[in-house]
Every structure is written in structure tokens, then in C-alpha cells.
Amino acid sequence: MNYTEKLVDKLNDVLRRSYDAIQGYENAIDDMTDAQLKNFFKNQVMERTRFAGELASEITALGGEPVTESSFKAALHRAWMDLKSSIASNNAEKVLQECIRGEETASEDYKDILESDLSLPPSVTNMLRGHKASIDATVVKLKMMEKVA
Fold it and tell me: Where would I find the DUF2383 domain in this sequence (predicted)?
């Protein structure tokens, strides 16, 4: 596998996780009654949709084929399934805990690609750093919301 194929594979992994997050937050919007949380989740869907578009554009620019759906790999799948179960009981604190867990997993995924042995183009590095910073800020917000839940 050449450099470009490895990079496209890594970016597609992160793209899949964006789709996983979108799906998880959309489930939360559908099932949660708290208006503040619903609004927060809607904003996260919009942000992750933007991330997905940016990732897909970079993949295409590299000559790759962007994935078009989520992967639900084991750890993230469990995190979002636990979120869905939490929503069923409409327990805001538990929902926030599951969101935190999912976002922390996503942050680690971004960290892994940024610290990988791949020499990333500056445009990709800047995009990934921006996404990771936003995800890390979301974790902070979620933890603050959890304290008052």
C-alpha cells in the first residue's frame, strides 16, 4: 500500500467516525426531551456534517474515494449504543456521559492520525487539528453540562 492509499484509509476511518457521531447525535435529538440538550445535539450534527464534508473533500483531492456511511467499529458502536439506551430512559446525566465517552474516543482517533508516521500535507494537518480542537472543546462543554445535570 502506497503513502496516498494509507493516508486515504486513515482519513476514511476518521470520516466513518464522523458519520457515527452524526448518527448518535441524531438519535439523541429524536429521543431526548430536554430542549437545551436537543439544541446542543443539533449543533453537533451540523458541526460533524461540516467535518465529514471537509474530510470527503480532502480524500477526493488525494484521488481517493470517500466512504459514504458509518462503520460502527466495535468501541464507537458500543459507545453510541449505550447512548441510545441512555436516551431511552431519558437520563440527561447518563446521555452526557455517553457523549463524553464517544467524543473522547473521536479525539483519540484524531490524535492517532496526527501522531502517525504519515507525513501529512499541511492542509490535512490543519484540518485535523481544527477538528480535534473543536471535539476537545465539545468534551469540555459536555463535562460542564454533566455537572449541572
Answer: 8-115
